[in-house]
Amino acid sequence: MRILALALVIVAATSCAFVDRLRPGPTIAPLISAAFLSVHLVAGDAGDAQERQRLPGLRDALAGALPGSWSVATAGRGMLNMRTDGDIDVTLEGTNGTSALTQHTRGGKVTSRTIAVHTIDGSRRLTLSELVATTLHELGHIWCCFGPGTSGGHWTDAPAGFSAVGLMYSPMRCDVPAGGDPVCPSVFSDRELAQMGLNGP
């Protein structure tokens, strides 16, 4: 079994783009709660013919996986619903690129947020487990990570190898068994849950 820092997850985790990079902490307008989060997930229209054909199925699979994955990731303290009028829009981009949370501002205040999740890393088409981990990571950026021990929205003490606990590292490492699909981090750490306002019982 070998440990591999997947390029998509590395790119998504290390290069998360923010419109407002210098904000001292998470913004709350419009208010989004990690305890009751709603997501509008759409498939983009970019990419080659093969990826455009794959995107609707990926969207449906990701939509099916996210509510349960969010519950597991938040130790049962968070609920995520898929809605057409969700708190945040997530677009599956059928291209190679940097997955990112973008904050849209007006008059210095955040008015909305969007997430772009790219489905290709170089020439490799990403698996559902990688896309779930990347989406959880980008959603986590709504609240995390700020203050001492962080840089660019990530913890500065990333583990050397794979850990299922901790989604906000850069790089975020996945475990790739020989001949198997990648297994990626799936649980927010206690300090991540604290920044998300989910450190209660």
Give a topology summary.
Elements: E1 2-4, H1 7-14, E2 36-43, H2 49-73, E3 79-82, E4 88-96, E5 100-106, E6 109-121, E7 124-125, H3 128-140, E8 150-151, E9 154-155, E10 174-176, H4 190-195
Parallel strand pairs: 2-3, 2-4, 4-6
Antiparallel strand pairs: 1-10, 5-6, 6-7, 8-9
Tell me about this structure.
The chain has helices spanning 7-14, 49-73, 128-140, 190-195, and strands at 2-4, 36-43, 79-82, 88-96, 100-106, 109-121, 124-125, 150-151, 154-155, 174-176. With 201 residues, it is an alpha/beta fold. The protein has one domain: Collagenase (Catalytic Domain), CATH 3.40.390. Strands 2, 3, 4, 5, 6 and 7 form a six-stranded mixed β-sheet that branches. Strands 1-10 form a two-stranded antiparallel ribbon. Helix 2 packs across helix 3 (128-140). The protein is globular and about 45 Å long.
